[in-house]
Each structure stands twice: as C-alpha cells, then as structure tokens.
Amino acid sequence: MASIILLTIAISIIYLLTNHVRGLRQNVLAAKKSGIHYIVVPVFFMERWWLVGHRLLFPLLKKLPPSWTRWVDFTLPEFTYDYSHEVFKRVRHDTFLTVSPGGICMYTCEPAAIAQITTRRNDFPKPTHIYTSVDIYGKNVVSTERDIWRKHRKATSPPFTEKNNHLVWNESIRQAQAMLTSWVGDDGKGNRTVDRLMDDTMRLSLNVISAAGFGRKMDWPTPETESREDESGYVDPSKIKNEDRDIDPGHKMSYTYAIHCLLDNILLQFLMPRWLLSRLPGVTPKKANEAYHEWGNYMRELVMNKKADLEAGKAPNDTNDILTLLVKQQLVNTDAKAKGQLTESEILGNMFVLILAGHETAANSIHFSAVYLALFPDSQRRLQKDLDQIFAGKPPSEWDYDRDLPQLFGGMAGAVLAEELRLVPPVTGIPKSTMEGVGPQKLAVEDKECLVPANTYISLCTGAAHRHPGYWPTSKPRLAGGHTAHPVANIDNDLEEFRPERWLISDTADGTTVTADGLPVETLAKEDGLGVNESSDTSDRLFKPIKGAYLPFSDGYRACLGRRFAQVEVLAVLAVLFQNYSVELAVDKYATDAELEKMNDDEKAEIWHKAAEDVRELLLNGLGVIITLQIRKGTVPFRFVPKGQEKFPDNVDEIWKRNHSDQISETGVPGWRSWAGTPKKRGGSGVSDQGI
Ligand code: HEM
Ligand SMILES: *[C@@H]1O[C@H](CO)[C@@H](O)[C@H](O)[C@H]1NC(C)=O
Ligand SMILES: *[C@@H]1O[C@H](CO)[C@@H](O)[C@H](O)[C@H]1NC(C)=O
Ligand SMILES: *[C@@H]1O[C@H](CO)[C@@H](O)[C@H](O)[C@H]1NC(C)=O
Ligand SMILES: *[C@@H]1O[C@H](CO)[C@@H](O)[C@H](O)[C@H]1NC(C)=O
Ligand SMILES: *[C@@H]1O[C@H](CO)[C@@H](O)[C@H](O)[C@H]1NC(C)=O
Fold first, then answer.
1. How many C-alpha atoms does 583 have within 13 Å on its Cβ side?
2. Maximum distance among all alpha carbons in the chain?
3. In the 8-state DSSP scheme, what is residue 42?
4. Taking the model in full, what pTM does it have?
5. Molecular function (GO) terms listed (predicted)?
C-alpha cells in the first residue's frame, strides 16, 4: 500500500516536472523567435500560489546568495513600479519579456511600443479573464472585449458629456466644502490633526458619483448622523450608522451603509463564490453578502423608477446623470432584441463598475496631491497664488465651470494633478495581451520589427514610462530630505521627485517642448459614439509629453471613460481646499503644539524633517495595490490651517539641508532590493555603502 502511494507521488512529481520543463522549453523557443530581449524566471507571476504566497518565501530567499535570487525582482507583482525605470536600465531594454514555465509576460515603458499597443485594440486585447471578478452584478464596459465591449462602451459613453460635467463640478464643490468644514471645524480654525484624508476623499468621490451618476445625493455626515465622535469632536466616517430612519421601506440597510459595506469588503465580494459567502459564519461575510443584495436592490429600484418616470414623461428633460441616460437609451431601443440594448443585469454591472473605476482613482488623486503639497510647501504657495488670480477671493457659489475650469486645468492645479498622476498612477501596469486567440503579433520594438508570441500577458508600465529620462525633460535632483527620492532609479535627475512646475511650459529650463512629432504612431480610426477623446490628458497650455510616455488614464480606444469626469472633480476639490487653507504635515508624534510654538525655524525644521521622512518612507515602501495603488502601511496625518497661519516656513527643507550639509547624499542605495527590506535610513552619511 505504502509503496503504491509513494509511486503515485513520484509519478506526479515527475509528471509536473516534465510539464514544467516542456512549458519552459516551448516558451523560451517562442521568446527567442520574437526578437525581443527576454529573461528566464522560474515562476509566472500571475500564478495564484505565487501571488498569495511569495511573501512567505522572502525570509528564505534572503538567506540565499544574491546571485541566486536575481530573478525574484522580475516576479513581484509591482516590480516595474517598485524599481521604476531602473529595472529597464538594468535589463538595458525598454521592452522585455519574462519567460517562465507557466507563461510569457511582456513589460514595456517604451512610448513607441505603448502607442502601437493602445492603438491596435484588436491585435492587443485586454486579458479579460483577469477582470471576471468585477462582474459581480453583470458584464460591463471594463470586463469585456471586442463587439460586446463596443456595445457596452456605446451605451455607457453618452452620459460622459460636458453637460454632466457641470453636475460633477457643482457636486464636487458642495462635497469638498462639507469635507473641509469637517476638518477645520465650524469656527474654521483648523488646529486639529486630520488623520482620515484617504477615507474622507473616498467618501467624497463616492458621493460625487452617486449624485452626478445616479442622481442619488448623499450628504456629508454630521456628528448627529455618526455613531462615534472622538474627544476632539472629530467624527470617524468609517463608523457609519445604519440608521433606522434612513432605511428605505423594503430594505435592511440604508443606501449609504450598503454602498460602504459593499466596497469595504470588496475582496470578499470578488474572491468568494456567492453561495459560499452566504453560508460562512461570522458577521463580516453576512454583512458583505447582505450589502451586495441591498445595493443591487436599490439600483434596481432606481432603474425601475427612472424608467417609469421617463415613460410617463415625468422626468425633467434636462437631467443628465448617467443613470437617466443609460435608461433612456434602453427605452429608445423599443425592439426588445435591439442590438445595442443593455439588459438589466448589464446596466447594474456598469453602474457598479463605474463606482469601482471612479471612486478610488479620483480619491487617490486628491489624497496624493495633498500629501505632495504638504511635502513641498513652495509648490503649494504657487498653487494658492494661482487660485487667488482665478477666483479673486470669490466664494464657490460664484465660481463658473465654463470660465474657471479651463484656468484651473491650464494652471498650477492642472499641473499638480498631472504631476501626481505621473508619480502615482492608480493603475501601475495596464494589462493587454495576445491572448484569446489573437496569435503572435508584429510590433516595432526599439526600432526593430519583432513578433510578440501568442498568449503573452502584456503590462504597459505606467510608472516607468512616466519617469523615463529619455522622454522627459530633466533637472538636477532637489534631494528633499538630503537624499534621492528613490534608492536606485533616476538618482541623477529629478524624475522621481514631485515638481508640478515642470508642466508649466514657460518654466522648462531651455524653453523647449517635446512633442509627439516624428514617432511612427498610427492614429485611431474614427469610431463614433465610443467617447474616445485623444487630446485631454492635460490642458493644451501644459507641457505635452510624447505619445505613449504619459498614460495615467490608459490611451487609445480603451482609455478611461471618466477622464474628464475625474479631472473636473479633482480640480474643483483642490480649488476648494486650497483657496483659503494650507495643508501641513501634522507633527504630533514629535512635538506638542505648545512646544512647537516656542521653537525657532531651525528647531522646527528638525521636527518637520522627521515627519517628512515618515511620509517619504510610506511613499517608497508603504504603497500597494488592491484595486488601485494606495498607501497601505499607515496614514499621513495633516493639519489644515488658514492661509497665512502656517506653522512651518515654506523653505523648511532648505533650512534642514543647510543645517545638515554633511548628510546630503547624491548616491542612492546601491543594490537596493525592494523585497529584501530597506536599510533603516536612506541617504545620509554612510548609508550609501550599505549595499546588499
Ligand atoms: C484620476 C482618476 C482616474 C484614473 C487615473 C483612471 C484611470 C483609468 C485607467 C488606467 C483605465 C484603463 C484600465 C484598464 O485598461 O484596465 C481606466 C478605465 C476606465 N475608467 Fe478610469 N480612471 C479615473 C477615474 C475614472 C472615473 C471617475 C470614472 C467614472 C466615473 C472612470 C471610469 C472608467 C471606465 C468605465 C473605464 C473602462 C473603459 C473601457 O475599458 O472602455 N474612471 N481608467
Ligand atoms: C451648478 O450651480 C450653479 C450655481 O450654483 C447653477 O446655476 C447651475 O444650474 C448648476 N448646474 C447644474 C448642472 O446643476
Ligand atoms: C486649538 O486652539 C484652541 C484655542 O486657540 C486651543 O484651546 C486648543 O487646545 C487647540 N487645539 C489643538 C488640538 O491644538
Ligand atoms: C420632455 O420633452 C418631451 C418632448 O420633447 C415633452 O413632451 C415632455 O413634456 C417634456 N417633459 C418635461 C417634464 O418637460
Ligand atoms: C474663502 O474665503 C472667501 C472670503 O472670505 C469666501 O468668500 C469663500 O467662500 C471662501 N472659500 C471657500 C472655498 O470656502
Ligand atoms: C475632447 O475633450 C476636450 C475637453 O477635454 C473637448 O474640448 C474636445 O471637444 C473633445 N474632443 C472630442 C473630439 O470630443
């Protein structure tokens, strides 16, 4: 008996091994034939056991000699973001393959290759199998390809119009004012620490989509509608009460509670089969499952009511929210089998996916803008000067979309958004492929005709493309905090640093602008009604990177549908926050308000430097992706103070550097490996020798 078991095990192992070897041999052959540079690695990064378990192996891998574990870098889920452009420099190619027994991946930060791929949508489709988890309510514009995608895109793009953007503008301003008041208090003094910027901006963007998208206005919670308040009177928005009086008849949860509960448990929703989720013990799975059904029911009612209103001619003709237009187009196609018509489950699927695609992304932009502006007070002052010029102290009730938005977009506010998205694009690797039967594809790689193998998973590496010194104008690094912004990438230039001023054309050092001229880029064939707009990543008044070098919203046919929506929202919010207030790093961890009051600028700079180093550490090692790239390992505490009452001088980092000129390091951290842990302190004296 025992021998039979042993034999079975042995045979299984041999079978697995031969399969692996055979897979690897085939893939290496295909890679060789492609003409694209390739690296052989032992695991396919998309393999489930590796995705889930790779971290557990780090302690073991760290013990091995570095020369045995060079491949590890190339199998980490976010490695092209973590190592930035350095990993391409290391490989000496802007496009390369990793070849493993389980499959082939292609990574590229080469603008010309990226532009070809985003333009040829049928040759390089999205690998739709990785998107099936977002289908929890139905198929949608994000998770489909080809004709089915066209149908969804045609149905979902009409609502994204300038008319609807007026609504986005109004609602963003309304929500931002409420959010700001919740931070600075009714008296507007604002001398309290705000530790919830990420959650609050998520709430804000959710409320904006709810109103501009579904005509369902949600109000900022006040202490009365919240279940908890801390000593300082600050309300914790994560503790939303499922208030009886807010629950619509026939529901168990209020709309607000349901949507928060749904999104808070998004991984459960994605990864657990529905039948299992409803049977698991414990409160969380139960609530998660209930929220799924409740939000679905709210949406179904919204659709039903809207339909009835429209049919009865009761709905005002000037409502432009997404829901109205989605339902309208369903009514127009009276023939039940009309080709372009979405089913109810598809409408729900799209409503859900619009929330998913639109709320975290936009929230991150607001959050990271605040983080960077707190780290760079001089850029913040410049933004505020710009706002003074645009609004001349007028209250938001007098702001005008048509007059003011282009000014914001073409000025410092637009530059801050563009720069923030350059450094922290929410999608770090835009997935494309040669899967699903398309076969090998010709592609010009580094000016050479190559053949991308069939079944290749392609990642357009936004982070690295956005910091490619070959395609962006560069200056010397500013060495904020006395060291380079990244341990190994771009250590001799400023591309890892936040400098929104680089987008203001009149500011570029030699006055030159880089344009897309001269690149062999096919333009998109005209396809009406898909809402594809090629010219609006940034304002015409800002610096224009060459095509394929900047793609926070992706590009081509599958570019973000909500690009303009998001830009309007973020710019409106930044305008509200920074018109009268400044954001500063909260330093409670290092000094009390009373202590700070007594300090001179040199002493303040010491304190500020410590808080800033914490934030820089978070930006380097604390980011992670669940749906989008966010800070995962902590929060950044802030103070919002009335303009002119800042606690720290604008040149606080310069003061620190002047007092610590001996600790300035221009060398980075040689041999840095993101997975093997960072040295305690980057830069500074002595650390640069600490190679691993
Ligand atoms: C700063 C904010 C945003 C960024 C950086 C962003 C970025 C992106 C990116 C990179 C993609 C391509 C994803 C892929 O190919 O897998 C995408 C797609 C999409 N985004 Fe956004 N997005 C933002 C805001 C929004 C908003 C506010 C909405 C809606 C209200 C939205 C709706 C969509 C939709 C529907 C798609 C799928 C389009 C298609 O495949 O045809 N996004 N977005
Ligand atoms: C936005 O607000 C302005 C002024 O408050 C108002 O006149 C306008 O009608 C609003 N627009 C929309 C689309 O709600
Ligand atoms: C805010 O200011 C008031 C009065 O100026 C002071 O009593 C209070 O302690 C301050 N709060 C904080 C958190 O610093
Ligand atoms: C909307 O427009 C239609 C036709 O253009 C008209 O018959 C209907 O009365 C209008 N409804 C409202 C509420 O204004
Ligand atoms: C900023 O202050 C001005 C002047 O007091 C006021 O009119 C305006 O409403 C304030 N802005 C915001 C966004 O609250
Ligand atoms: C593209 O978007 C810009 C605003 O972002 C708009 O002015 C322009 O008309 C749009 N172009 C097309 C073809 O829709």
1. 28
2. 88
3. S
4. 0.90
5. monooxygenase activity
